[in-house]
Amino acid sequence: MSGEPMALRPHHGMCMAYFVGFGYSDGFSRNMARLLTEELPPDRPVRLTVAPDPVCGACPRCAGGQCDKPELVASYDRAVLELCGLAEGAVLPFGGFTALVEARILDRDLRRFICGGCQWDHICRRTKSRWAAPERT
Ligand code: SF4
Ligand code: SF4
Fold first, then answer.
1. What is the pTM assigned to this prediction?
2. Out of 15, 46, 71, 136, which residue is the most buried by the measure of CB atoms under 10 Å away?
3. Which domain holds residue 24?
């Protein structure tokens, strides 16, 4: 692993898998793209945190340093932790975390049971996960 651990809400491992440029604001989307392309190479350590993270940092719904749906998003986070067999506060490489999210949740089509009520579900359900292995031809 290299670099300081970045705090990451566990359920953002799913949101990032399906991010295609849409978000709560232009600033949110720019920040998400930057995190994915510049800040989170597979060997960057992340600390799984059920609290606002750098994704939330550019989110207009994060007024006053807290998500406006704190209990709902915390339930998403806890479901991801449980399915991945991880505890809050765990530190692991981002690539190791996303591999677990893919294998334990996304590839098993379990995401919809966690966050199927989210306003972005219609996008996530039809988008291929960026953590999935490339299809063989
Ligand atoms: S439906 Fe919402 S919470 Fe679930 S992965 Fe997509 S953006 Fe994230
Ligand atoms: S503040 Fe809430 S809605 Fe915004 S990115 Fe964070 S968890 Fe998601």
1. 0.96
2. 46
3. 6-124
